[in-house]
């Protein structure tokens, strides 16, 4: 059994990345950073599997560096869904903070187990990662002649595949797909639910509904709203007729109108026009109302 030894560089790096990921996810000022995405991907795709591999295979002879890296990826892909499945049956559910807490605790625990198991091996036999060793291994694999060209080709293909995957991942992160562009347009009753709409009126009565607009167009939009009763435009105040919303901004206000004519089953239309088309409604909804004299 070896005496006290410093925490190995690879386990120290894993533990540091776990803590750094927690900071970038939990601190609001840092949660919008690009590094949050990078660290989150490492937490999901590599760190738990690497720590578990270290706990299961603490000796150098157990596994080579490249095989260890591939096993780390595979184990991470297995561990994360299993942890999510377990979280789903708890009061916490599958939410960001509980899942992050679980992954962090698991990874740090496995780092501790890996360190403990390496301590119980002779120092020369315990797996470790150093810059000098890594460079020496690469030189041995690719610059020196070996008996097995097949192993050399296989190792090259594995490294190329990993680089291509990382490059593709970086491209996807740096060039996210633009989401679908659309606008929500709806009306609610006075209680702000989709029921109990006012549909019965006496002459000169006014009615009120809640009108809502949500901009998901990926840019700021200028809208024009119009209310028509049997194709007859009803007056609206300027702040409700012309509405400007930034991306993901919402507008929801009570809108009051007075039907100017009597009739049964009249179509009361709520029309929304966008900034590029002023004659054809971009979104619309309607109610059927009755305006009759009291008998």
Automatic annotation (TrEMBL):
InterPro entries found in the cross-reference section: DUF1616, UCP018671
Coiled coil stretches, renumbered: none
One Pfam family of this chain: DUF1616
DUF1616 domain ranges (all copies): 14-290
Superkingdom of the source species: Archaea
Keyword Transmembrane part of the UniProt annotation: yes
Annotated keywords: Membrane, Transmembrane, Transmembrane helix
The keyword Cell membrane is assigned to this record: no
Transmembrane spans: 12-32, 38-57, 69-87, 99-116, 153-173
Record protein name field: DUF1616 domain-containing protein
Organism: Methanosarcina horonobensis HB-1 = JCM 15518
């Amino acid at each position: 059994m070896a005496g006290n030894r410093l925490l190995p560089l690879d386990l120290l790096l894993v533990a540091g990345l776990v803590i750094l990921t927690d900071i970038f996810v939990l601190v609001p000022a840092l949660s919008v950073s690009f590094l949050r995405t990078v660290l989150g991907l490492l937490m999901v795709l590599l760190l738990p599997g690497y720590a578990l591999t270290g706990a299961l295979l603490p000796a150098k002879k157990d596994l080579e560096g490249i095989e260890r890296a591939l096993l780390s990826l595979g184990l991470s892909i297995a561990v994360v869904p299993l942890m999510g499945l377990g979280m789903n049956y708890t009061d916490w559910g599958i939410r960001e903070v509980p899942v992050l807490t679980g992954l962090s605790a698991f990874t740090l625990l496995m780092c501790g187990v890996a360190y403990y198991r390496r301590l119980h091996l002779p120092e020369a036999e315990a797996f470790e990662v150093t810059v000098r060793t890594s460079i020496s291994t690469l030189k041995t694999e690719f610059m020196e002649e070996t008996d097995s060209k097949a192993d050399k080709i296989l190792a090259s293909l594995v490294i190329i595949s990993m680089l291509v995957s990382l490059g593709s991942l970086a491209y996807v992160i740096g060039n996210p797909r633009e989401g679908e562009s659309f606008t929500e347009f709806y009306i609610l009753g006075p209680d702000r639910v989709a029921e109990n709409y006012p549909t019965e009126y006496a002459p000169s009565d006014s009615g009120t509904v809640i009108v809502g607009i949500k901009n998901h167009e990926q840019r700021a939009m200028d809208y024009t709203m119009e209310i028509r009763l049997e194709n007859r435009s009803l007056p609206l105040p300027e702040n409700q007729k012309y509405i400007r919303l930034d991306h993901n901004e919402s507008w929801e206000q009570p809108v009051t109108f007075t039907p100017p004519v009597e009739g049964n089953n009249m179509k009361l239309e709520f029309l929304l026009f966008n900034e590029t088309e002023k004659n054809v409604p971009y979104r619309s909804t309607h109610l059927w109302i009755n305006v009759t004299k009291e008998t």
